[in-house]
Structures are given as C-alpha cells and as structure tokens.
Amino acid sequence: MFPSLALAVETMKLALRGIICLGQNVLPLVLEMNYVFGPIKYTCLHQGKCVQKQEVVCKRLDDNSVVQNNYCDPDSKPPENQRACNTEPCPPEWFIGDWSECSKTCDGGMRSRTVLCIRKIGPSEEETLDNTNCLTHRPIEKEPCNNQSCPPQWVALDWSECTPKCGPGFKHRIVLCKSSDLLKTFPAAQCQEESKPPVRIRCSLGRCPPPRWVTGDWGQCSAQCGLGQQMRTVQCLSYTGQASSECPETLRPPSMQQCESKCDSTPISNTEECKDVNKVAYCPLVLKFKFCSRAYFRQMCCKTCQGH
C-alpha cells in the first residue's frame, strides 16, 4: 500500500515510462519521499534587523529532486528553522547614483552624481542621514570628463546691411573656420562643409521710390538788355542717380523760359551820334525779329533800334 495517492500516481507514471517494473511476481518499487531542510534564507525586518529562515521541502530520495509537499507524509514534516540575526541596526552607508551626461562633448566638461549617506530601516525603506554619520571617505560627486580637444568649428560674424537700400537685395557675412577657443583660424577645408552656415541671405527694405524729374539751375539770360531766354537741365533720374526713361512726360518741368535783362536807360543827347554802323543791311531784319533788345544788335543798328 502506498503512503499517499499522490505517491501512487507518481509510481504508476514511472512504471509506464519503464523506469520501474510492476509485473507479476515482481514486488512493486515504492518511491521514497521525505522532508528535508532547504537552503538558509534571510528576511530583513524593520530597522534593518533580519530573520534567518530554513524552509522544509519534500524531496525524492532516489534523485534528490524537490517535489510537491503532498508527496510526503504531512505527519513527518518538521517545523521550519528560524532565528533572529543582525539584531543591531544596519550601519549608515553611502548611496552612489549613476553619473550624469557630461556637460560638454569636448574641451573638458563636468559630470555629477548623487552621493547620500543612508541607512536601511526595512526591506524597502531607508532614511537619509547627515554625511557625518557615514564613517568611510565620501565618494566624489563631480569629476571632469571629455577632456579631448574639440575639432575646428564654423564661426559666423554679423550680417551686413541689406543692399541695395530698397527693393530686393542681399545681406552678407563672413564665416570662418576657428578653433573651439576662437583663438586660431584654420583653412575652410578643416571644417565640415555640410555644416557651414550661409554667407548670403535675401532681404528687402521696402519698395524703391519711382524715378523723378531733377532740374538744374537756370542759366544766364540770353539778352543783356530786354527780353531773352534762359535754359536749365532737366533729367529723369532713379533713386540711385542713374538716368531713367520712366518719368511721366506730363510732369516734366520746362527747360526754357523767357527772361528780361535791365537795359541802360541813359538818353542819347545827339541823334547824329546814333546811327547804323556802315549802314548794315540787316538792321531792318533786326528790328523785324525783335533783336534790338540784344546789346550787340542795338549797338550795330542804333538808329534802327532807337525807340524800340
């Protein structure tokens, strides 16, 4: 008779697999199971105090494998071994966190980590104490990192003003290949071309003013006495001062105007002294075309121009 139903089932499984024989005239082989003490385990309690436990497990005696407890006789199970250990509170110790990322990728940066003085007060509880409570040397919480020199880098100067002063234009700037401390300038080939900042960008300061008519000063009157004409320059210029043909003709200022010069009004006492020089044949034409206001013709045709 088997000690338990579970043991009987286990024995039948082994028989079917040919491990044991239950044939005629063969005594059944009964598997022996028994309770044994397992490995020692520690369980921490409040204030860091721990308990040492040694559990009882059910094992097969033929191969020393652990099986379920219902294979063993429950009446033969011994009590678990348990005793207190580490009865004194756990001493404070340093908690050291992971290092942070370096503050710089090159040319020397700093990294830091958390360093605390803690004491365990339970399986998952701890308290933070003043650093003086930890007796060992405090680990460093900051250290230098990435001390290798940085490669040359692009440095862009300020943008120039937009040119031209109106309409679409461009801004320009100088971009240099410099050392990380900005003290040395390297050939552009030593910096990565694909990361070079732009040296020119589009800009606009608003629409340009339209071309306009620009006039010069009036010239001298063509007549030294009486009516004449005077001239001036009239140009169509763009805002840059260049000649243009886009000024409206309807707004073009006049380039010529009539003028009058003051004549000498001294009377001629002797009419015999006023005469046409050598009886110039064109003096009647001078009178006809009103050239008597001009000093030259008035002198050469004095008699003809007298009174006119």
Automatic annotation (TrEMBL):
It comes from Anas platyrhynchos platyrhynchos. Keywords: Repeat, Secreted, Signal. It is found in: Secreted. Residues 270-308 form the PLAC domain. This is ADAM metallopeptidase with thrombospondin type 1 motif 6. The keyword Secreted applies. Pfam families: PLAC, TSP1_ADAMTS. One of its GO terms (molecular function) is metalloendopeptidase activity. InterPro entries: ADAMTS_ADAMTS-like, PLAC, TSP1_rpt, TSP1_rpt_sf. The lineage of its organism: Eukaryota, Metazoa, Chordata, Craniata, Vertebrata. The keyword Signal applies. GO terms for cellular component: extracellular matrix; extracellular region. GO terms for biological process: extracellular matrix organization; proteolysis.
